[in-house]
Amino acid sequence: MTLWDANTWLGHYPFRATPDETVDGLLRRMDRHGIERAGVANLNAAFYRDAHSANRELAHWIAPHRDRLIPAAVLNPCFPGWEQDLRECAEAWGMCALRLFPEFHRYALDGAECRGIVETTSALGWPVVIPIQLEDRRQHHWMDTTSAVSLTQIAALARECPAAELLVLEALGVENSLFVRDPDLAEARVSFEFSRMATVLQATIPRLLTALGPARLLFGTGLPLKTPGPAILKLELLEASETVKEMLGAGNLRRLLRM
Amino acid sequence: MRKLDCHMHVHGGRRNWGWSDDAAIVDAADRLGIELLVCSIPVTDGRRADPEEVRSCNEGVLQAMGRFPGCIQGYCFVNPGDRQAALDEIQRCVVDHRMVGVKLYNQYKVNDPVVYPIIERSIELGVPILCHAGRLTDPADLARQPLISDAADFVDVCRRYPDAMVIEGHIAGGGDWEWSLKVLRNAPPSLYLDTSGSVMDAGLIERCVAEFGDERLLFATDMTMEGGVAKILDAELTPLQREKLFARNFQSMLDRRRC
């Protein structure tokens, strides 16, 4: 089974020592777990005032490994100059997705600034990627005052920007969300990375396959913040056709990234 | 490799944990190669548990044990504040109905003197006590569970009772696990730690082994089934260490039963 990981990071997470936070470390982990390629963004962008400095770092770090690592930009729509920065990410560094940190950068997902960057990014043909959280709330460092991004906010953004392809990382609770309950969102272009869902017992992944179809669930691990085995095991245990597993494992991300 | 899950739950009393039927637990265990699930039904949310409700919870566990003999075993949940009722319930469930141990939640801290008679009875019977635990860093979480026990509370009570077997629950679901592991260095031999919880932080299991050791570290899921198994498989451990965590350590606790 081919694995393309939608949810990896480089850079330093400031609240906990993380093994393998370097490019070599990430590639080593990917090799160990049979992950062929990965979408990656720079964690530093969540903490820098000018997030774009982290995009420059990322481009430099992964330049020798573009066959494995697919870079995603991080920008703050409330910081000046994001339009020019976005162009640089696309034209100079060949990035092909945008990750947003509304909680760390303190803006509303359904606000005008965010709508602007999402529409501009979508016009490039890029997916907009939104991590729900970087770390479990119960163990937050005292300087980390963020909350989890709510699926209700993401639903509002999906309504505001229906042409945008949204990808939710660390998704949880989707089976009880508006994305399943509201018929108006049945065709929403929103996909969900399933590392926090379950194949057995709660069976949220099989239930969402039925509710949303196989095109809207994606494999991701959270490497190197998280250990990747659980997400891989969930895909292995899934009782679905090889075609569906291939979509979840790699095909859906490949489609979103137009690769 | 054998796998004994020392921290799991079944439906019963007023509790429905979110799956359709407890047969789903057995199915999950089969698919993950888990031989035994030791289950309880605690009264949660910081509520005081009256004897009638406690008994109803334990009836649910006994029903599951009867329905799935060999796969599901039970802990007897008690509220130490109702001393005689708690001791009577331990007699009924552990001695008469062969539950394997006692379950405490957050009605009292584990080192509150009101808990001492429960611990003393567990020593007489040679059975473990599994207790809900956490070092919660979010004030809102802590406000909901003001009497949750943290690692320091466990160390305190285990120093008082070196012959007990007290399991601190879900290191990977109880808040700041780095703080907890620092406190658990050189913990008394009566203190055990289970690996359950939904947190999949890279390096967590390795840190548990480094700080707490591999002799009293116990595999468990607490309903995070794939993650519970995969985080042990992912961790950089020797085959012997993995065997100890998955089964050997808990089996040695079960072998100390005297009733």
Q: What report would you give on this structure?
A:
The complex is a heterodimer of chains A (259) and B (259). Chain A has 259 residues and is an alpha/beta fold. Chain A has a single domain (4-256), classed as Metal-dependent hydrolases (TIM Barrel), CATH 3.20.20.140. Chain A contains ten helices and nine strands. In chain A, the strands form two sheets. A six-stranded parallel β-sheet of chain A has the order 4-5-6-7-8-9. In chain A, strands 1-2-3 form a three-stranded parallel β-sheet. In chain A, β7, α7 and β8 (190-193) form a beta-alpha-beta unit. Chain A is globular. In chain B, strands 1-2-3-4-5-6-7-8 form an eight-stranded parallel β-sheet. The model of chain B has no long low-confidence stretch (mean pLDDT 97). With 259 residues, chain B is α/β, with parallel strands linked by helices. The relative contact order of chain B is 0.14. The longest helix of chain B is centred in the N-terminal third of the chain and has 17 residues, at 51-67. Chain B contains ten helices and eight strands. Chain B has a single domain, classed as TIM Barrel. Classes of the chains: A alpha/beta (259), B alpha/beta (259).
